[in-house]
Design a protein that fits this description.
Largest sheet: 8 strands, parallel, barrel
Radius of gyration: 18 Å
Number of strands: 10
CATH topology: TIM Barrel
Bound molecules: 3-hydroxy-3-methylglutaryl-coenzyme A, magnesium ion
CATH class: Alpha Beta
Number of domains: 1
Distance between the termini: 31 Å
């Protein structure tokens, strides 16, 4: 970059970001179920790309999310690569016990900034969910397993409408206080635009360090890349994305997939922000899973 504007823009951006690949979980949980060997092969290919964090499954109710039922087998069969953390969702102690038995590197608890989504997704109120997480975090600590937290509906809820940025800030702070090392803020239905994302992040960053905040955008209205750019400008350095933009949310009808990992890497490369991810190897994983799902890459 040469001009003064480009120079000042580049100095406002972080030098590097961490990408949390959620395709094998958030992506595949909302696609037609694929065979176990396809999940394993996808994760093995993603492991060769330079990604350092791959969310590989979820220990949740099989009745609610049948696509994730084989998560234990997935963790047994994948070829783990050094420097990659393989994580899973664990909504309660039952899930955590299965995750520990499957030798996961990291777990994640998840709640919502809106009551109705929380009830539909995990069958309890927001306050009850935080109480439910405490023993999960305690047992994870005993096993030295880091716990990530997800907060859904940080912009809008499909049932309750607009979410107050101050509620997002307060819940994010509470989740950090009970022991999550990082909170991923989810625009679950992808209705956010940069201005609203900025207002939400501003509220959160007034109470929480930016190093402990990640962003998780679904791309329903094609705004995810613009929203990520906004988050980068505000100093956020952890971005969730899904290979080939797979996914959606079973409890948020109409929500499209997560932002595609390829697009995030392309954006970051173009901005001079280091990702550690090899685009050619990523493209091979994209082609593989699109073939399996009979989707266009
Ligand atoms: P519940 O009904 O309140 O719990 O479920 P329960 O303890 O009464 O158990 C009910 C049944 O579930 C029982 O089976 C339990 O054994 C079973 P039954 O006796 O009826 O045969 N059960 C479990 N099975 C396997 N693993 C478990 C487990 N716990 C109970 N861990 C629960 C509460 C949270 C478990 C349930 O509501 C659930 O699994 N919900 C699914 C939530 C989910 O996976 N949602 C999608 C992921 S979140 C997401 O996509 C958003 C995110 O991407 C961010 C964003 O975009 O915003 C993270
Ligand atoms: Mg999601």
């Amino acid at each position: 970059m040469t001009g003064g504007y480009a120079h000042s823009l580049s100095s406002a951006l972080p030098k590097s970001v961490k990408i949390v690949e959620v395709g094998p979980r958030d992506g595949l949980q909302n696609e037609t179920a694929v065979p176990l060997e396809v999940k394993v092969e996808l994760i093995n290919r993603l492991s060769q790309t330079g990604l350092t964090h791959i969310e590989s499954g979820a220990f949740v109710s099989a009745k609610k999310i049948p696509q994730m039922t084989e998560s234990g087998e997935v963790f047994q069969q994948i070829q783990r690569t050094a420097n990659v953390s393989y994580s899973a969702l664990t909504p309660n102690l039952k899930g955590l016990e299965q995750a520990i038995a499957s030798n996961v590197d990291e777990v994640a608890v998840f709640t919502s900034a809106s009551e109705s989504f929380c009830q539909r997704n995990i069958n309890c109120s927001i306050a009850e969910s935080l109480e439910r997480f405490k023993p999960v975090i305690d047992l994870s600590n005993e096993h030295s397993i880091p716990v990530r937290g997800y907060l859904s509906c940080v912009i809008d809820c499909p049932y309750d409408g607009e979410t107050d940025p101050n509620s997002v800030a307060s819940l994010t702070r509470q989740m950090l206080d009970i022991g999550c090392y990082e909170i991923s803020l989810g625009d679950t239905i992808g209705t956010g635009t940069p201005l609203r994302v900025a207002a939400m992040l501003e509220a959160v960053l007034a109470h929480c360090p930016k190093q402990q905040i990640a962003v998780h955008f679904h791309d329903t209205y094609g705004q995810a890349i613009a929203n990520i750019y906004q988050a980068l400008l505000m100093g956020i350095t952890t971005i969730d994305s899904s290979i080939a933009g797979l996914g959606g949310c079973p409890y948020a009808k109409g929500a499209s997939g997560n932002v595609a990992t390829e697009n995030v890497v392309y954006l970051c490369e173009g901005l001079g922000v280091e990702t550690s991810v090899d685009m050619d190897k990523l493209a091979s994983a994209t082609r593989y899973i699109c073939q399996q799902l009979a989707k266009a890459p």
